[in-house]
Amino acid sequence: MSEHVVFRDMRPEDVKVITFGEPGSLIDRIDRPDVVARVALHENRIVGYAVSWLAVVHRTRRFIDVEVHPDSRGRQIGTRLVRQIQQRVHRPLATKAIAGSDAESFILSLGGEVYASCPPFELPRRHFGRAIEELAEVSLGPGGAISGAALAPGVLETLWEQMYVWMHESWSPVDDSEAAHEALRQELEDLDAEATRVALVDGQPAAVAFVFVDENPTVVAETVQADTPSGDEAVASAMSSVISWADDIGYKRINFDGHRSDPHFGPLASRLPLEGASLNLMELSALPPDDDDGEVGGGAIGA
User: Fold this and answer.
1) How many CB atoms lie within 10 A of CB 177?
2) Which helix (H) or strand (E) holds 53?
């Protein structure tokens, strides 16, 4: 006799009984009108779930989180959950996966593709000096960057939005709504303006290395406009100044958050002794309107 799995819409109370994945992250999403969520049950026990939602900032794709209980993997449950989500939405589905991971292999097996890639992001303290030397070959030279705290109030916020919007314009555009821009401003809540470094060209901000501090600093660095002059030199100066600051403070590492496709940060990052895994941003294309993956209500686990 074949074992059967049943699929249905996720209910708010399901979050309290899911024991795998990160169900806590679902609590604030499950009641939102834009959310589409399904669960898979075997013998009345949830063995898998998939949740898809629209982000506020980027809305050309829907994001998706898929989890299957370790004891139930390899039985097409995740595949069926994803297909059921695809049948209900009309945008591509996006997720993130470590390069070479099982999660990446799963998305690739469904026909997914990488639409952006992030380089290894950790710069350990033992490599701070080498990184500064590498960046010095490109940078504007000593004194090429100032603290973000030296700028007039509100300027860093404006530079952040300008930089973020143009960086994503060609592959994941920012929604042109007040809600999206407010969400971008809220990302600066953990910004360390004093540690942030601004590179000046002809007296004007040309590039910024924004520093967000938690346990260790996370740095987002690029030019403030796509056509900023001396872009490589300006970004290198801002990054080098932040590394020197972190060295003086005594941090054990710096994390960089960026993409290989970033025109100035990407090539500079490739010169640095960064460690850790590469992260891929992956996309599943939207299904044609008449595509049907079979009965939604249930089926054999091994199907």
Assistant:
1) 12
2) strand 45-53
Cα-flanking dihedrals φ and ψ of residue 59, to 5°?
A: -125, 10
Superfamily of domain 120-276: Gcn5-related N-acetyltransferase (GNAT) (3.40.630.30)
Q: Are strands 217-223 and 253-256 parallel, antiparallel or unpaired?
A: parallel
In angstroms, the CA 86 to CA 92 distance is 8
- Token output for 229: 């002059």
| Segment 87-143, tens digit of pLDDT | 999 899 999 999 999 999 999 999 999 999 999 999 999 999 999 999 999 998 777
Q: b or e along 4-21 (b: 16 or more beta carbons within 10 Å of the residue's beta carbon)? A: ebebeebeeebbeebeeb
Phi, psi of 149 (to 5 degrees): -70, -15
> Are domains 4-92+286-300 and 120-276 of this chain identical in fold?
yes
Query: In angstroms, what CA-CA distances link 231 with 38, 119, 197, 224, 272?
Result: 46, 20, 15, 9, 17
